[in-house]
Backbone:
């Protein structure tokens, strides 16, 4: 059985128009994911979710 590759995606957002940020996970493969929210290189919130 082959090992699944781990991918690291990173995005920089411009100043949002409102106080809400939506994450669309339609095109992600099934599995466990980790979401890290940082501010000035400090971790604010770390959460995991399963698709």
Residues:
């Amino acid at each position: 059985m082959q090992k699944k590759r781990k991918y690291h995606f990173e995005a920089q957002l411009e100043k949002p128009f409102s106080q809400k940020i939506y994450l669309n996970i339609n095109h992600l493969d099934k599995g466990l994911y980790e979401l890290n929210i940082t501010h000035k290189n400090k971790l604010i919130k770390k959460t995991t979710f399963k698709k």
In short: The mean pLDDT is 83. The two ends are 22 Å apart (CA to CA). The first strand starts at residue 32 and ends at 39.
